[in-house]
Amino acid sequence: MGARMYYDNDADQAALAGRTVAIIGYGSQGHAHALNLRDSGLDVFVGLAPGSRSRALAEEAGLKVGDVADAVRAADVVMILVPDTAQKDVYEAEIGPNLRQGQLLMFAHGFNIHFGRIDPPGGVDVGMVAPKGPGHLLRSVYRAGGGVPALFAVHRDHSGSGRARVLAYARALGCTRAGVLETTFAEETETDLFGEQSVLCGGTAALVKMSFETLVEAGYQPELAYFETMHELKLIVDLMYRGGLNFMRFSVSDTAEYGDYVSGPRIIDERVRETMKQVLAEIRDGSFARRWIEENESGRREFERLRSQDRDHLIERVGAELRSQMRWLDPVEVHAGQAQASAEKHAGTERAASEQPA
Q1: CA distances (Å), origin 40, targets 75, 143, 172, 173, 194
Q2: Predicted local confidence at residue 125, as pLDDT
Q3: Which one of 60, 123, 124, 238 is CB 3.0 to 4.6 Å from 101, fit for a cystine?
Q4: Structural contact between residues 150 and 129, judged by C-beta atoms closer than 8 angstroms
Q5: Residues near 234 by Cβ (< 8 Å), separated by ≥ 6?
């Protein structure tokens, strides 16, 4: 409870007055950063590969667009927003050779700094602003007058003004409207990876699939199982989002609340806690990072196999059909052909701004 949150009054926008910010990449995060910064009055230069399909999108939004090296040379602040696995190659080829003393090099995730894949020169400040939400949300909440909370960190402050500029960047994104929390590259990276694997993506997806399969294998209708294990999950998470576990339990029936207390710890038990500790240990000692880097460098065969294996799960087929009849949900279906975007990401081509990754 002792952590300090920083808000608009703690961040002086003047620290970036008259400065040019290079946004490297124009995917989910890139487009949101570029547009929010532009709308906050900053001079934004989007750096993209010559053949990037995102060039047209950025130009249509009225942004200045050029090659990555040109953007870096023109900028006072450089924010790298290409995928984690592409950052090292882009940095070594286009960013690092064009950095100069006094610039601020920024990241939205600490992966490449923490695991030593990128080591900027000593005369360059290194910072991070990591919004706690996908890019489309960062943009839409900003436009509505709000902000997405974020983490910020200063890895190096050679100039002495790095921290002030990082906070000013967070304010220009709109994040200080909601509050930003100071951290380190190590803490952000390790907790972010753990959250994704234990709850937000891995744990939730596995729990949803297993509970769905348990009902179907017991003879219940797949459509009913879908509603009970996936569709209603959003309703419960929305309650937690607004008021925590207490508000969720206040809002559901007493029967549901009692089942929460007596059955939840049986399903997510001490064996799961021990597995979580093992997952965290693999993140902290770098073995997960090494596995993921090696997977990318060897052609991503395991990744594509796992992706393909889950794409046609029964819960996906049933869910797609049911959602197609609820147009107000704005349902989205990812087809096998669209997975080609993954290969393009791996090669350094950014996601289209309209895509919304988890």
Answers
A1: 17, 11, 5, 8, 33
A2: 98
A3: 123
A4: yes
A5: none
Q: How far apart are CA 241 and CA 220, in angstroms?
A: 30
Contact 152, 131 (CB under 8 A): no
3-state secondary structure (DSSP) of residue 201 = coil
In tens, the pLDDT along 145-154 reads: 999 999 999 9
Tokens of 10: 């703690």
Query: How far is it, in rounded angstroms, from Cα 294 to Cα 300?
Result: 8
Place of tokens 């490449």: 112
Q: What pLDDT is stored for residue 334 in this prediction?
A: 85
**Residues assigned a catalytic role:** 109
Contacts of 123 (CB under 8 A, 6+ apart): 100, 101, 102, 158
For the segment 84-122, what is each residue's pLDDT rounded down to a tens digit? 999 999 999 999 999 999 999 999 999 999 999 999 999
**Residue 348, amino acid:** G
Q: Which residue type is seen at 285?
A: D
Supply the pTM of this predicted model.
0.89
Helix residue spans in the chain (DSSP H): 28-39, 54-60, 68-74, 84-90, 111-114, 135-143, 162-173, 175-178, 185-195, 202-217, 222-226, 232-251, 254-267, 270-284, 287-297, 301-311, 314-324, 340-346
Which two structure tokens, joined as six digits, stand for 45?
């230069």
Q: Could you tell me if 138 and 174 are in contact, meaning their C-beta atoms sit under 8 angstroms apart?
A: yes
pLDDT digits (tens, 9 = 90+) for 191-245: 999 999 999 999 999 999 999 999 999 999 999 999 999 999 999 999 999 999 9
**Number of CB atoms found within 10 A of residue 71's CB:** 25
